[in-house]
Amino acid sequence: MSNGDLHYEGEFPIVIEGLTNAFGDFVVHDQLDLKVRRGEILGVVGGSGTGKSVLMRAIIGLQIPREGSIEVFGQRITDAEPDEVIGVRNRWGVLFQGGALFSTLTVAENVQVPLKQFYPELQHELLDEISRYKVVMTGLPADAASKYPSELSGGMRKRAGLARALALDPELLFLDEPTAGLDPIGAAKFDELLRELTDTLGLTVFLITHDLDTLYAICDRVAVLADKKVIAVGSIPELLESDHPWIQEYFNGPRARAALTAKSNADRRAKSMDKPAGDKA
Ligand SMILES: Nc1ncnc2c1ncn2[C@@H]1O[C@H](COP(=O)(O)OP(=O)(O)OP(=O)(O)O)[C@@H](O)[C@H]1O
Fold first, then answer.
1. Is 96 helix (H, G, I), strand (E, B) or coil?
2. At what angle do helices 184-201 and 154-165 cross, to 10 degrees?
3. Ligand 1 site residues, Cβ closer than 6 angstroms
4. Is the complex ipTM more than 0.90?
5. CA distance 78 to 65
6. Which of 106, 126, 206, 277 is 20 to 30 A from residue 158's alpha carbon, by CA?
7. Domain segments of the chain: what residues?
8. 18 C-alpha to center of ligand 1: Å?
């Protein structure tokens, strides 16, 4: 399944220029630009309705833009015919808001959906083996593979959705609010898993989230959507230098300060655990 020899070597696996998305007269994005760096977790934030999901849908070809260009792995996907981009589409995985698992399929069968779609020649035994491997990789117990989504907790369903998103060994992962609805401990565990998988598998991640803890804990950079554009992109300290009112309110508000304190405490705990025994001063 690996795209080994195809692995993208460029600096920006996603390049968006002059993107305009609209529904009738309602313009969601107006001349939006964004570049996503290889190997980063890019958090995408913005007020409700600013077009985060529409942006993700445009990148994966589910929303036809009115204007502009989107390149993924150096290939222009806007205006391309579906069969021209098939070699790009099997290099990304998507976890939609809510998980969007097929309720009538087991977790393993859900994971096999993209495998069967892109590799119809795969034998049953191999499909079983790959799906079991993906399930365990996302921290689910092996017996979760034969369960139906309704038999899983919310956090387990998210992991199952992630297992399906990873089915094709993607280089690029799109996640739409993956920790929404999880309790803070479950959300923190999911964040940890995502950071670990990103680093070990060399993924690039486009992560839509409202979760400030996630932004502080695992995102390398954050892109802010407002005024129909990406108004800023950078690390959180870089964003704090912006005087845009939404950015100031979002990253300087009480919830952001609490998230920052939580992150500092977690870093301090991790550091003290790294110290050799007897060196806890
Ligand atoms: N298929 C559609 N037809 C018409 N309008 C749409 C459609 N899809 C999205 N929109 C509108 O586009 C705007 C952006 O929607 P989108 O779902 O991208 O927002 P969002 O930033 O992801 O919001 P949230 O944080 O609440 O999930 C919204 O006003 C939404 O109503």
1. coil
2. 20
3. 23, 28, 46, 48-54
4. yes
5. 8
6. 126
7. 101-169
8. 19
Secondary-structure breakdown of the chain: helix, strand, coil percentages, each rounded to the nearest 5 = 45, 20, 35
Q: Is 216 helix (H, G, I), strand (E, B) or coil?
A: helix
- 223 has which bridge partners? 44, 233
* 128 residue type, one letter: D
What DSSP character marks residue 29? E
Q: Does residue 166 sit in helix, strand or coil?
A: coil
The pLDDT-based confidence of 1 (bands split at 50, 70, 90) is low
Q: Which pLDDT tens digit goes with each residue over 61-97?
A: 999 999 999 999 999 998 888 778 888 888 999 998 8
Distance CA 185, CA 6 (A): 37
Residue keyed to tokens 């609490």: 258
Q: Ligand 1 centroid vs 24 CA: distance in angstroms?
A: 13
Of the CA atoms within 13 Å of residue 59, those in its CB half-sphere come to 30
pTM: 0.90
Is 161 a residue whose pLDDT tops 70? yes
Residue to probe by mutation, ligand 1, list 44, 45, 52, 224, most atoms within 8 Å of CB:
52
- Rounded to 5°, angle at Cα 244 from 240 and 250: 60
- Using CA atoms, how far residue 206 sits from 4, 176, 229, in Å, is 21, 8, 16
Nearest to 166 by CA among 144, 193, 142: 193
